[in-house]
Amino acid sequence: MAKVYEVLQQDRADLLARPDAAPDLIRLAELRIVQFVVLAASGIRPRSARGLLLADLHLFGEAGDWVHVHRTGGYGEAKTRTSIGYVPLEGSLWVRVRPWFCEWLETERSRVSADQTQRVPLFAVAAGARKRFGRTLLEHRQGELLRWVTGNEDARLYWLRKTRVTARHRALALTEGARARDIHRILCLSGHASIETPISSYIADPAVLVGHSVLQGRNAERQQILAASNVEGGAIDVAWTTAGGVKSGQRIAITLNRLAHAPHEVPAEQITEPPPLIAKGGLLPADLDAYARLRRRLPADEAQLQVNLSPSQSEALEAAARKLLVLRGQVPWPVDGFQKPRARLLPPRLLASAAPFKSALARRPDDDLLALSELWAQTGHATLTGADHDAVFVPTGGDLARVRASLLTLGVPAALISEATHAHGTSLTVLRPPDEETVLELTHQAALRWLLALVWLWSAVTSPANTE
Question: Closest Cα to residue 398, out of 374, 418, 415, 417?
């Protein structure tokens, strides 16, 4: 968890160093840190954390630090009645982060009046605002980093709750003289009504479940230990006496050390580079692909935050989309003032046959692909000469062989490339697969249109005029 926290802090530092970073993006990076720390230290549910108010964090230092889970205040959320109450903030990460967290919380509270702290949500889009950031904006980056640090594609933010619940039960399992009331206390802190819930759904470490049995095993009779371990009695008696006597708590450990079993070797830790918040080396068409898919259902400012674009980049994209609409009559997302469905390009389905087009989005376009996208954009006017609307029109004197080679490089089968001659040039059209092809096969037409539109937009946004 410490590595995820470090990356989240680095995300914030990178955005602060970025001259065109949106203030909303910087605040969002801070709130991701706050949410991650609260979840890791308390083990409350993500939905309960999102419903916290500024007044719900009680940091008393030596007297304890607590978070108040409730269903009131207009934002509070608790899955069950047993989840309501005060939950301690604890653990090594909390000890490390607490000074930064206290400073951030004090600054946040200073921006509103004392009575407003009981009405303003902790994850507000701005200081004193009543609107909160969406769950996806807050949680997606943290989930991405958890999958990175664990190497498990199934990792998600809820695992922080399971980790804290397991840590509480592990500490109790290794405590001498633990009573049933101690277990009940942990169940109350975790919001569980019975011990069955953590055993069946939360605790994944067998050592936690058998910890009490290991403690009880220290009091096993000598004959039972010798029978189970098959060690020589005289030698083990001497070792026990040296360690504190036959009733020493070290008897089991000493016996296990004498068994002919090599300890399990823990593999060396190998941590790769974390997934970047913002692609290094500038925008890629893949970033525009993510923006376009979000922009089809969200306003520009929200899509911009989710893809980590700056306001200037978002404005340049919207301006480029309006130019493309004039050229082609279709764009990947609705343009303000022109909402007709037929003016929107449909994104291709993410099937296996789209792999060549998807890989092309993940790298900087080469000169051939840039030239192909420009020819495609200009083909909107060539339809007046009889060229197909989905064609790439090559004017007379153009490099027809280069265009055909570019299509083949993108994975378009040669059999699906149709050529037609017109008065002022030649058009290349990508045909649909024959009827006998499976209906699940992606038509290259849709994927090619989408790719060329995004490459053209990328070229327009990254041109010197927009990057200076």
Answer: 374
